[in-house]
Amino acid sequence: MPRDATLEDVARQAGVSLATASRVLNGSTRQVGRALRDRVEQAAAELGYTTNRAAQALARSASDILGLVVHDLSDPYFAEVANAVVRAAGRHGLSVMVGTTFRDPEAEIGYVATLRAQRVRAIVLAGSRSADPEVTARLRAEIDRFQGTGGRAALIGQDLLGVDTVVPDNHAGSRELAEALARLGHTRFAVLTGPPGLLTAADRTAGFAEGLASLGLPAPVLIPGPFDRDGGHAAARELLAAHGTEVTCVFAVNDVMAVGALAALRGAGVDVPGRISVAGFDDIPTLRDLTPALTTVRLPLAEMGTRAVELALGADPAGAEAARARVVLRESTRALT
Amino acid sequence: MPRDATLEDVARQAGVSLATASRVLNGSTRQVGRALRDRVEQAAAELGYTTNRAAQALARSASDILGLVVHDLSDPYFAEVANAVVRAAGRHGLSVMVGTTFRDPEAEIGYVATLRAQRVRAIVLAGSRSADPEVTARLRAEIDRFQGTGGRAALIGQDLLGVDTVVPDNHAGSRELAEALARLGHTRFAVLTGPPGLLTAADRTAGFAEGLASLGLPAPVLIPGPFDRDGGHAAARELLAAHGTEVTCVFAVNDVMAVGALAALRGAGVDVPGRISVAGFDDIPTLRDLTPALTTVRLPLAEMGTRAVELALGADPAGAEAARARVVLRESTRALT
DNA sequence: TAATCGCCGGAAAACGCTTTCCGTATCCGA
DNA sequence: TCGGATACGGAAAGCGTTTTCCGGCGATTA
Predict the structure, then answer these.
(1) A121 and A217, same structural domain?
(2) How many domains does chain B have?
């Protein structure tokens, strides 16, 4: 098995020093004379030389890798964010190393450690963290160690003191949604709240409840459950069983849950929005092709990913930065006449 | 800014040699005595030592990174595959570096080059390649160079002579779909073929047409267009404009196109499956929540990703390997009475 | 009891690149 | 003609690991 050509092979073949070959092939502030430059380039082409990035990273003590950790790539929310992150990283000449945690906080911490070992240039952490202070502290410690030795990090989701964060305006978005739905005439609501102890879910639930309260409406029925499609499905069934008739509108704290809820309601023969209106949160792309199209709160997912990359790379210590959430009313919610 | 603790720091603190520290902390065939082992471990803990993987990769000349290149992470097909790849790689202790090409073959070649420069352990290429022989040859050459110096590669999709490949049975799947639809009584079909020169799309179109021909049915109307949701939408509109009344069943060569077509038909007030039946291909997860639920040909997406990783990592020269495709009839296709 | 073997610790040479430091050659203006 | 920049080539010292030797030592064998 022939080994890859090294810079030394190139230098030898071109009859120049290692230093010169390096300067020609891998950028440098220094100039190299035309004649030698040509010789080196030709030698490199003949040998099919490709820079060994691992060696380069070691020598420069700076890699060109950006780490990304998400919960689940097959969740459209993260897929969208990841897509934007990969794209933005590419624009900065960085490759992306991605990890999926499947919502296991331990895995998340582990991934940060792995990325730190890789000495990646920056880490983008997407997805909300747990409310468990002990776990959060450990994650925090891991990030601190990374940042302590020159690493950069940015989060998407919950603010984690002192780390640059793109924070979607969950609270205000949900609150506005509540107001918009109330304007349609609804008064009795249910919220599929997701798991207790998930900050994003909690914020959205709180914002929604607050919106209702400020209008003098009764507090919503709260149904917890997993944060995914099947969780929404199950929660909706539970809702029907327990509070079948009282409620006219249900808010699932994220879109995939709302999709599951929609399926459950359809399965139970409940007309949406005829009998019950449904709303979600995030505005994942698949939503528009559902029947009925789902009312939701739009988050600029791609933009958030892009912004996180810039935050993680940028020199400006931006601190926390809000991503505006916007209510989008579609067919799944109707006005009560 | 303090720098990361190095192995040398650890060795000094523990009062042992570099060799010993390395053997303790980063695995080795060699044993280290109990006393020294403890000293090293304690020193490492005190200093917060983390192996520098770049340096390790250089010294071992073997990285623990797996490269993955997909077209578009926000396409559920690739999201599903990528998810499985990341998971499978994790089981083998590898991290995944991912690139997205957005269907640009040049970008694909470029990414393979990047991954080669990174000296990744293996590369998994998902997504069908172009029919342009010149581009394919260049991609092939790039892969060859990678494999020529000990890299491993596996593809998902079209077979590329001599590279291990997981190939979905597009032809047979489409053919069986055609037969199943014919059995429902349909005789006049349209196929939304995707772009000309995309092998996967061509295979599926051909298999479908062949199925019809073997039953003595007329050839389908062929409508080309982009391979994505909007492409399907546009193609369906075109179909309605040109052949509005003749056709009773349309096959979009992938699910995202079928979803777009469904939306277009709904937008045009065409009842599905009342007036036109619609079928797709892939069975992406979002399908089940559509109304009507979409008939499709199921591909074991996650399994394909997992298998590709094993192919790329495994010692067994498996060659091309088929992934069985299975017709799944749902509500979007109805029997003609 | 001497010869042999296994174990285990360390010195040092890679791995493939970057970058500092030095030295020589060339150019400019006076 | 000379002094001082300026430009550019190369030697060599890293970057943080792994791994090959080599040597010493205690235990086994004859």
Answers:
(1) no
(2) 3
Residues B294 and B309 in one domain: no
Residue of A nearest to B53 (CA): A118
Nearest chain A residue to B284, by CA: A74
Nucleotide nearest B19 (Cα, C1'): C10
What is the domain extent for residue A286?
170-299
Does residue B185 lie within any of the structural domains? yes
CATH code of residue B263: 3.40.50.2300
- Supply angle C-alpha A127, B230, A260, rounded to 5: 45
Q: In the predicted model, is pLDDT for residue B308 greater than 70?
A: yes
**Which nucleotide's C1' sits nearest to the alpha carbon of A20?**
D9
B336 lies in a domain? no
Output the tens digit of pLDDT for each of chain A's 337 residues.
Answer: 788 999 999 999 999 999 999 999 987 778 888 889 999 999 999 999 999 999 999 999 999 999 999 999 999 999 999 999 999 999 999 999 999 999 999 999 999 999 999 999 999 999 867 778 899 999 999 999 999 999 999 999 877 777 899 999 999 999 999 999 999 999 999 999 999 888 899 999 999 999 999 999 999 999 999 999 999 999 999 999 987 778 999 999 999 999 999 999 999 999 999 999 999 999 999 998 998 999 999 999 999 999 999 999 985 555 667 788 999 999 999 998 7
Work out if B35's Cβ lies within 7 angstroms of strand C.
yes
